[in-house]
Amino acid sequence: MIRRSAHLPPYVLQTLVENAFKHGLEKKRGEKELSIALERMGSWVELRVSDNGPGPADPVSQNDGMGLENIRKRLSLIYDLHTEVSLLRRMEDTVVRAVWPYTPEGER
Questions:
Q1: Rounded to whole angstroms, how far apart are CA atoms 101 and 49?
Q2: Average pLDDT, consecutive stretches of 10 residues, N- to C-terminus, the chain (108 residues)
Q3: How far is Cα 85 from Cα 76, in angstroms, rounded to an integer?
Q4: How far apart are CA 60 and CA 31, in angstroms?
Q5: pTM of the full structure
Q6: DSSP letter, residue 46
Q7: Other Cβ atoms within 10 Å of 44 Cβ, number
Q8: Using CA atoms, how far apart are residues 28 and 77, in angstroms rounded to an integer?
Q9: Is 90 exposed, middle or buried (0-12, 13-18, 19+ CB in 10 A)?
Q10: How far apart are CA 98 and CA 83, in angstroms?
């Protein structure tokens, strides 16, 4: 397996993990699961943070929450190319996905 470094924008991972606890896992009884995946896909980097909490009561309004909106703004300030932040409820999990252009670590 070949591993390559990529730039991870400041506070993106921290914000998504905090949101998973605040809006999902904090309210869940029983076993709590948090999953983090970071993957380079060609010219793009995708970060996924998922949890098995009950999920937002209204996924549409949560998609425009302050934490996710701050990440959208931060990514658009750092990169001139397309970036994306989305929230999705899948089966028993809530998944937040952030996508930005690949740049080697330390370069932007």
A1: 18
A2: 74 94 89 94 94 72 76 95 93 93 73
A3: 11
A4: 26
A5: 0.84
A6: E
A7: 16
A8: 35
A9: exposed
A10: 8
